[in-house]
## 1
Amino acid sequence: MNFLDRLNTLVQGNKAEEKPQTADNRENHGEGVAEQITPPEQSPVTAKREIHLDSPLIEEILRKLIGRIERNENELNEMSEKIAVLTAVNNELVADSANLREILRLQGEMINKLKSETERLNPVAIPVKSETENSDSEIIDVETDTSEENFKDSETGLTLTELFMLRQGDKIPVRTNINSANRYLHAVSEYESIENYLDENAEYKNFSSYRAVFREFTDSLGKAVNHLRDDIEDSDKDEISVIVTIGIFKVISKHIITRLMPDLHARLSSEHDEKYVNFLRLLNEYLEKAGIYTFNDFSEGDRFTDETAEYFRAVKVPCNESSLDGISAEITMLPYCVSYIEFGERARHYIMGNMKVYSLEKQQ
């Protein structure tokens, strides 16, 4: 029996017990003699506490209370049904989200595999290009001499390729802690010597173009540094080295490595100019400060192999001698690398270099 049933029973029972006293009832108390019985006096307190459940006021209160309870029960039932529906929908969304993440993960793996396969097959697929064509440089168009035999830096005695080489340091630039990351971000933000040199030589040949490219770089770098400072605050310590190192490397490679370096190589191949050499030295110093180094295991005159194809994109240079077929003619850009810590171990990220390779022309 619920609360409403018990309440109704109580009201009805109270009505049954309180019957009005009739004349017949009074006769039972004597032989027709009317006897007046004086009720005992009640204290004021007792009189105030006497409650008649059959009074109109109490019935009205109970009626409203019962109606409110019924409405609450109906609303509770409706809310329970809605919660059940929303719970079912949420479970379906969770399942769909998990499936979508798995699909995206598989797609990412497939894309990476396709990229790797494309880069591996790239030397065979690339058509023969002009010797002066350089798709990575957007600044100038100069004629270049593919031979480096006569190039020797007057100060160091280095060949052109050697002039671009950067040594690999023993230290990893960013460790797995925020302090190391902040020191690195501060270090790569110091480039005043390069800016001053470009300002001093702004009127010299195409240095105004170099200055414009470098300003684009500094703008992008500033945004990246601010973004990375926020990211590392919420990152696990095992992710800090990867996030910061590769994040900065992408900005540097986009502006300095793939735009300024190929252009400087083309200029110096055509003309030995100390202003360009000095600018290259400043860039090299900055790259080494950023922990960037070149992969130096390949040289002009080496045969282009599958191992070479992992680090270089090949541009074919026609030749008529079978002995030269597949031999490296010139390295126009070295592979640039950076090391970081991933899963507690040293890892390497790099951007591929460019190499001209002799290709035997088919006889007509």
Note: The longest helix spans residues 56-125.
## 2
Amino acid sequence: MMLDPESYISHLNDTSLDGLIKERNLVIHRLNHYEKHKGNADEFDLYPAPEKVYEWNNIILMKLTNMIIEKHGE
């Protein structure tokens, strides 16, 4: 089960800059995977829907990027 973006980000508050960059790269990988394979999904119900997970991952990426910018400035 995937956490909503706010919960996901709250778990990263004390993460180092290197950890945030690794997490960002993982989210980018998930986004790229969805974009490459979105037409190949099986025809059964998933919760949350792949489209929702894609949306959440984009929100997470935005928030992670902001966290990285803030940590980099410290």
Note: Residues 20 and 67 are 8 Å apart (CA to CA).
## 3
Amino acid sequence: MLISDRLFYLLAVLFAAALIAVSVRYWPGQDYVTGPFSGAPEDGLVVSGQQLGVMQAAQGLTAQIMEEDGVAFLRTAAGQSPTDGGRSAGVFLTLPETFSAAYAKTTIEITMILRGAGPDPSPKVSLAYYAPGRGNSRRTKCVLTGQWQPCTMRYQPPPAGEKNSVDYLGLWPDLDGLSRTADILEVRVMPAGKSALRALE
């Protein structure tokens, strides 16, 4: 049975796309990274390893995935202080609307596993929750050392609005804006009834 050229090319394109998808997902030696938001919000959120690449840096800040002894982390720096220029969330994680809505009016515990690192390590950072147009948390300041340690805060986000329903978790890596570096190993958000910490290896 003969098929038209148009149908042949359509089938060829679909086959090639499927082959590429399978190769990326299952090819030996490839590390497949699932999205951090694939689970249910009420079960909590954990972002670590290569997933930290979903975090973004506002203007004047930097964020770069690095590895050390096979462990991936996000190295961040701030070339300005939190009070310089316009308001910013620093290096931030954008929460999808489903997560923002699930956490609204619920006390959540936010933890980042951090360290001061690099040639010029940051001595102190701040952590905050941002709900634009509805209310932001106060900044929680944490002193860093060269060892991984938790920086934790609790907050009850305001109800989601009709127009502003996307929230952010933000880290300011250097409160003096001197481009000193702070590393993020993990970001974890849990309802207050659950533990927000895991054993550090």
Note: Residues 75 and 183 are 4 Å apart (CA to CA).
